[in-house]
Batch of 3 targets.
Target 1
Amino acid sequence: MSVHGPSSILFCLLLSMWTILTPTSSHPQHSQCKLTQRTTLCNNSNLTSIPVGLPGTTEELQLNHNLIKTLQDNSLQYPSLTSLSLACNQLEKLQSNTFQHSELLKSLNLANNNLNISYLETSNALKTLPKLKSLDLSVNKLDEEMAAVLLQNLTALEYLNLSGNLLRRLDETSFRDLHQLKDLDLQRNLLFEIDNAFDSTPRLQRLNLAFNYLPCLTDFDMTQLVVLNASHNFIEWFISRQDVNDTFQIETLDLSDNKLLFFPFLPNVSRLRNLYLSHNILSFYEHLADNVTFPNLTATVKFYNLRKNTNNITAQLWDDSLHGDISSVEILDLRGNQLQYFPQGFIHKMPSLSRLRMCTNCLESLNLTSEQFSDSLYELDVSNNRLKEIVANDVTLRTLSNLTYLNLSLNDLDCLSSELLFALPSLRSVDLSYNNMGICLPEEVEGSAGIAWNTTVSLRQLYLKGCHLPRIPPFAFSGLSLTHLELSDNPGLRGQQSIKSLSTTLHHLGLGNTHVGELDFTNFQNLKSLNISCNSLAHLPASISGLDLKQLDLRDNELSTIPSLQANTLASKLHTVFLTGNPFNCCQTEWFRTFETTKTIHMVGQSEMECTDLFQTHSIWHSQSFLCHEEYGESIFWYILLFVPVCISLVGILTILFLTLKPKVIQKSIKKKYLTPTSY
Ligand SMILES: *[C@@H]1O[C@H](CO)[C@@H](O)[C@H](O)[C@H]1NC(C)=O
Ligand SMILES: *[C@@H]1O[C@H](CO)[C@@H](O)[C@H](O)[C@H]1NC(C)=O
Ligand SMILES: *[C@@H]1O[C@H](CO)[C@@H](O)[C@H](O)[C@H]1NC(C)=O
Ligand SMILES: *[C@@H]1O[C@H](CO)[C@@H](O)[C@H](O)[C@H]1NC(C)=O
Ligand SMILES: *[C@@H]1O[C@H](CO)[C@@H](O)[C@H](O)[C@H]1NC(C)=O
Ligand SMILES: *[C@@H]1O[C@H](CO)[C@@H](O)[C@H](O)[C@H]1NC(C)=O
Ligand SMILES: *[C@@H]1O[C@H](CO)[C@@H](O)[C@H](O)[C@H]1NC(C)=O
Ligand SMILES: *[C@@H]1O[C@H](CO)[C@@H](O)[C@H](O)[C@H]1NC(C)=O
Ligand SMILES: *[C@@H]1O[C@H](CO)[C@@H](O)[C@H](O)[C@H]1NC(C)=O
Ligand SMILES: *[C@@H]1O[C@H](CO)[C@@H](O)[C@H](O)[C@H]1NC(C)=O
Ligand SMILES: *[C@@H]1O[C@H](CO)[C@@H](O)[C@H](O)[C@H]1NC(C)=O
Ligand SMILES: *[C@@H]1O[C@H](CO)[C@@H](O)[C@H](O)[C@H]1NC(C)=O
């Protein structure tokens, strides 16, 4: 009885599951399905057809990742079914009467199938679904004609996904019946032309055209659209209809990763808030339109609509003021373009501008006063430009009362022109890395304040990597509560004592490649991340063990080992440690085993770490092959231990052999010695 106990319990369990799963009939097909309330989940079950006999009240049925090829007529006998999902099957055909008994179906997911094969019959099945609101046909190898046929009569459709198909061009026939469509995903097709395709979809709000081959978007007049994503195409021109009086509802326009040469010609009146234009070849050109020297230079370009000769568009190329309504813009992303300047009044036209991302452009100067940034500016990234100076007056600095994140790294600024920025009242994070700050800190003027970093009390993060800093003035950080301080790549930096005043607040400290000597981290109780790479350190500073570090960068130093005690303490706290580029001693790698066996620690570049033994350099991982002093001695001991008995037995054997083979010689010698006549 006790032996059979568990299996009988299992049997009871199976039986009760069986009864749950088979309330009416006893077809075994659907035993893989999970039923919860009105949802039936039969995903990943190798099914080749829709299971029969599921509860008649099923409202949602999921059959994703199965092997179904055809939906047979009448295979769905569930009058309450509103949602059916058959993604990732091998569906080729939906027979015309598939949905005869499921007229309430609202949502149908047919993604990742082969509907291109029998799309005509499938379209007849879809036509019987007048209530269908959501349809996913993504990744089905459909071209534009197949799609147009499949979408006939779906007059209630609100959401349609056609991404990952083979659509090349769209026209007025493509979505003719989809009068209720709100959300259309056309990502990752082969679209190169769109011609009046959205005339019959007056409610469309979200349109995704990303990753296609569109060369331009001209004549844009979809006033109802809220989100347009046309990123990752080959768009050279974006031009909206200028003669439309209505307010465009557009809030988000993504034209990033295209080939735009000009700032887009936006609608005259719009609600545009998020404008993404990164990674184009945008610039402003008005400074080139020198109409005194070249009075006859043509400054307009005309776009002809070849199809109907209507709506020809004329754009004033050089007129920088013709960029439409940008008055609601909050996020402007212009990263990776070729802007040399902002046209006059351009920034001033965006009173709500909160985030301006200008990383990697060609700005040479920035006059915060003349640009007239507003007090909503929160993040300003002008890193990786050619800025030599930043100009601002007291009034401007006070106006920028919300400016919190400022990135000026990778420019040609010196500290005089950046110092004034520390007067910004809300500044939290400043990145001045890779500028020429050192110039204002001559080595001789030891002791003088000479620097304004500590004038902004709100400052928490200060990045001063690679600034040619020779030293830090003693009181540079006094009064500040920095959590991040990055001073790496300032070789020969002196004055680390000044960091002591930040010991209670710092979370991250970067001192890589500064050639720091002895360091004392005794009171840095909040430090979580420390970078002391590239510093020729021969020993780990003793005070490191007392820290609660999560990340430690020790790359490219002169460490030969890490004492066991320190290794144990570090291993219990660290999450990430960088140790490559140290001349470790293979014969003192106990610390490595400690780190290796501690599951919570990630040793970055573990396979590249090397150590040297008596003869050569090894990967520290293959510990078996090391030849070490101690181990050498040990092995000699064992060799001797082994060797001695072998020798003794060999000698014994040889003696015995000798004795048996040449007994006469012995006898003779014995005789010689002992059998000589005695004189008695
Ligand atoms: C489908 O739409 C066409 C016109 O677009 C119409 O002639 C036809 O009757 C409709 N069929 C159904 C089943 O509604
Ligand atoms: C459309 O389908 C694709 C692929 O199946 C998916 O990645 C994408 O998120 C879907 N789009 C929407 C808006 O749900
Ligand atoms: C536009 O689509 C691309 C590709 O799907 C996506 O990465 C990007 O985040 C989208 N843009 C916006 C603003 O949602
Ligand atoms: C826009 O308004 C102007 C004047 O109010 C009018 O002449 C013009 O026809 C309108 N345009 C459209 C496209 O409605
Ligand atoms: C839109 O702006 C352009 C240029 O400023 C102007 O010529 C045109 O009349 C405006 N259209 C409307 C409808 O206001
Ligand atoms: C030259 O350009 C200026 C400003 O862009 C304009 O005011 C002036 O009328 C132009 N002159 C000619 C001859 O086009
Ligand atoms: C500009 O055009 C006018 C009239 O077409 C002509 O007389 C003049 O010589 C031209 N100027 C230049 C610099 O080509
Ligand atoms: C558009 O340009 C073509 C070619 O010059 C011309 O024949 C046609 O009349 C123009 N249409 C309009 C509406 O201006
Ligand atoms: C910066 O702009 C202000 C206001 O337009 C102007 O007075 C000042 O001369 C400009 N400074 C520089 C260096 O261009
Ligand atoms: C400052 O900027 C943040 C982030 O954009 C925003 O939430 C906040 O309302 C702004 N404050 C003011 C006073 O503009
Ligand atoms: C500042 O910009 C540079 C270059 O774009 C980037 O690498 C760095 O991470 C940014 N700094 C901060 C603090 O975000
Ligand atoms: C530590 O600083 C060095 C020198 O600047 C840098 O190369 C390295 O990437 C930094 N380590 C980490 C983990 O960021």
Target 2
Amino acid sequence: MQYLSTRGQAPKLGFADVLLAGLARDGGLYAPAVLPDWRPEGIRALRGLAYPDSAIRVMEPFTAGAFDNTELAAMTADAYAGFRHAATAPLVQIDANLFALELFHGPTLAFKDFAMQWLARAMNRVLRTRGMRATILGATSGDTGAAAIEAFGGLSRADLYILYPQGRVSDVQRRQMTATGKPNVHALAIQGTFDDCQRIVKELFADLAFRDEMRLSGVNSINWARILAQIVYYFVGAVALGAPERQVSFAVPTGNFGDILAGYYAKRMGLPVERLIIATNVNDILARALSGGRYEPRTVKATQSPSMDIQVSSNFERLLFECSGQHPELIRALMADFSRDGSFTIPSPILERIRADFGAERIDEAGCVVEMARVYRESGLIIDPHSAIGVGAARRALAASPATPVIALGTAHPAKFPDPVGRATGVRPALPAHLADLMDREETIVVLPNNRNSVADYLRQTARALA
Ligand SMILES: *Cc1c(COP(=O)(O)O)cnc(C)c1O
């Protein structure tokens, strides 16, 4: 399979190179040139399969040429072996026609493990085959960093650096990054905000000489492999509810637009998805863009669902690319507007196409609390604030279209956010057994000033990819 940059000025690449590149050299994101077309028989044949077996079938056409079937099967089985639920992604019913797909049974308790556990193994395998090392750089507001550090810790071919804003991640999230004891993974506390971390990462990627010198690679959801691994659970969830015979909708707690974009690709591949509902907190740029047609960031507000406190959703560029009929000139023009004016208008034919597949619901802070309390009261389930935003959005979608079942994605385990969950339900969820001693483990804290040179110097001194 070949991949194209959304901005059309970087070379077409195969899967292995896209995996290592992360961001395209022209600043665009890689997207598949053509999508596999799933027939109803193929979807039906997923019924009753174990999660890794479904994953192999969904991913195989995308990775063809990079891995043979035996490699793909071994790597995929291994990636999901560490999940602590026999079903990997169990589907639970919450209300009439309302379901939650629990995506938080992986090692770091958020859905990010689904993609990161697979991506780390895939990257290490490509690097080993090529006899190379890589330096992987990413920014996190908490969950991505924890998932990446867990997935890459101890791998032989990659050194991982994760920038997080000092003092702005939860204790659980910080300790998941700093108390690993693995020498190839580095959590760097930047004296700034998440936006500063992300800016430093982007600047270092844009410095092509540094990028080549360090063999930089990325694991944020700009990396296509993240999206790919997430397409799988849309198939698994829909099949559990009767696809291809029955349509379903999905409500997805959204920040950087990676997770819901995977649902869009699943729909384009033939999965019968009626609506994709973008669930946002008060940082509602995507809901505003859908209703008014203007993509215009505002100041980020801190909420109970911090992993969605994002204003610039990188993956929206991939959706614009697909809905424009893969038109890189148009994407370049929109992105030029965005860097000049800080906003852009979505051309109306593209907006109409987006509206045909997507809805958007904004759940405010009070609505999030009401939903956590209601689900606990009515079904005894404790859900985290991010998942609650998905469930709240799903209820609104059901009110408009009661006949189609809605699956809300459960994106994090409640024990990751014990304070807001405890306030809403009166129950303070405990960490699962494998993390019970997290608060006693020894941390290695590295603090760096808020500028790219201090990060570049730190990488040069410690990374092994230079040789
Ligand atoms: C990352 C994250 C999200 C947002 O996902 P995107 O792919 O960035 O839209 C939602 N909930 C949780 C718990 C997360 O960690």
Target 3
Amino acid sequence: MNAKALVREDLAHIWHPCTQMKDHETLPLLPIKSGEGIYLFDFDNNAYIDGVSSWWVNLFGHCHPYINQKIKEQIDTLEHVIFAGFTHEPIVRLSQRLCALSPQGLEKCFYADNGSSAIEVALKMSFQYFKNRGEKRPFFVSLQNSYHGETIGALAVGDVKLYKEVFEDILLQTLQAPVPKDQSEEAALEAALALEAIFQEHRGKIAAFIIEPLVQCAGGMHMYHPLYIKRARTLCDAYDIHLIADEIAVGFGRTGKMFACEHAGVSPDFMTLSKGLTGGYLPLSVVLTTQNVYDAFYCDYSEFKAFLHSHSYTGNPLACSAANATLDIFENESILEKNREKIAFMASKLDAFQQLKNVRSIRQMGMIAVVELDEYPIDFRVNLKIFTYALRHGVILRPLGNVVYFMPPYVITCKEIETMMNVAYEAILSLNTL
Ligand SMILES: *Cc1c(COP(=O)(O)O)cnc(C)c1O
């Protein structure tokens, strides 16, 4: 099929995620033919820099020769096996490595196949942990402006209106604590006080507090100080509440450290991982938890305390082989160290945006750089304008409302960072003349 036929047949049969399909009457869908490194290619061989890592999943570029090879080796050995009652080498190796890499105390891995499902697992485990101990704790606390996925349970702990509002009537009751309003220590301390008030008011009724450590990605790349996580850990300990760190977006080096919790020196009771876990290749997610949580489910069958949660594709060996290959690259190529130069370079380029008159603020956390524009009316569709301009100039950017951000694969060079950020600069500048 050529590109034109693909678009026609796509629109005839497919409903795309996170999309008002009517937009495609005027905004052409872009068929991608191939990928290599940070570039995606269309059917006319135009190259596009993948500035959003294909929805934050891609770490080492598209069609990475080493990851490709490892998946090919695995597919000729074992493609999949039921994961209840059976195991396989890729998942055992992966679990050893994840436990060794993750914050201290996380010793057990429970697998699923996407981020939202990992959130469901963590919530259910936390709830049942207390139930198995003879307590009923119906509440979860999350942060205002948080995003944890779009299945019903994950939506309930989220707080982005765009996704949640329609379904409000059928969601679990949850409590939202104020998120620190900026990256200062004062804001962190102020928000921690508000959190304690909630913990106090609902003492004995809260199972878990869930956070996106340091960066609320879908919530407009909102950032806060690690001190807040430290305080939250202390409060969770004091009130006997689980801390769930949702590192689905910020894990695997995005914030400059392997896991964002490391900035605070904190170990959560649950850590959820997905997105970068397979380098952006295959769907896989995991919940890491403690021996203590595991032990609360460990008993004779007749006590009915087992954790009953399963997905058909739990622990898929192909996805695990991609994850192992991803961890190999982290180890063999000192990725976190090499990213430091790129992080500093992004910071230097980011400064220039401050001069633009429609820029409200800039911020950065590791490999995530953000330019927040002034508010525009909804029907101005500022994000669509930036997206379209950048695409025409060979860069994929997908602003969240008025928040333009860069989250490129780690194999990007400083020169390519410059190209990507220059296009964004011009795109923002062009808003003034529209
Ligand atoms: C993307 C995301 C999720 C949901 O993951 P899916 O694989 O899209 O279901 C959950 N939490 C955070 C922080 C995310 O960024």
